[in-house]
Amino acid sequence: MDSKLSETEAYLWKYISANINDIPNLSIIKLSELANVSTSTIVRTMKKKGYEGFTAFKHHLKDEQNTSINFSKVEKIDSEIKKSIIKNEQEVIRTLNMLNTGVIEDAIQKIKSSERVLIFARGFSELIGEEMKIKFQLANKYCELHTDPNIIKIMSQYLKKSDIAIFVSLNGETEELVNAAENCYKKEIGTILITTNTESPLTDLCELALIGYKSEVSFFPEYEVRSRLPLSVIARILLDSYVIRMDTKKGSN
């Protein structure tokens, strides 16, 4: 495509490439002045490069910038703060890369065909369970959330095959959740797990497992308060996907 550029257009493209970080903030008039070319040359160059115009090219650059963290906007950023930001970025990106769309689709179908959704969660995972419960209810799906250890054990004994149980657990080792999953397994109750541990009792017991990435970095090493961000990401994708499928079904009727 570069062979189609005239000498002036090639010069302009070289100028843009050398000053790419400044381009999104420039008007076409300002770029014309800085590069010493006409606005017509800018428009022609953009079209030869596959863009509708200079504005479309700037939008493309801004979209690219928004996909990565720009630390240049934070003056004298503390190295530990930067470490925290990168930790969260890694948890999100790696979790997205680990997700299996086939498992998500199977989970949606399980939820869709069930009469009731029962969510079991403990500790900080309860916050994610609460968000899921509310969203299922807003989507007109019957849903309960159970967080009390004794109630979790009891409720799991009385589930029906028309129910689906969703376990939210970072490590997949919480005793009462494992006990509940064992009850579901014995009664052949459908189960979905949201976790970050591929080798846990819950992972072995649950029918479908949506697994995210947990960073080994913790800023509260003395306590078990690790980030539930990967679980939150998975839960939101599952809920969003469920609603999309339900809306698609309505639209086809």
From TrEMBL:
Coiled coil: none annotated. Residues 1-68 form the HTH rpiR-type domain. CDD domains: SIS_RpiR. Keywords: DNA-binding, Transcription, Transcription regulation. Residues 107-249 form the SIS domain. PANTHER family: GLUCOKINASE, RPIR-FAMILY TRANSCRIPTIONAL REGULATOR. This is MurR/RpiR family transcriptional regulator. It comes from Enterococcus alishanensis. The lineage of its organism: Bacteria, Bacillati, Bacillota, Bacilli, Lactobacillales.
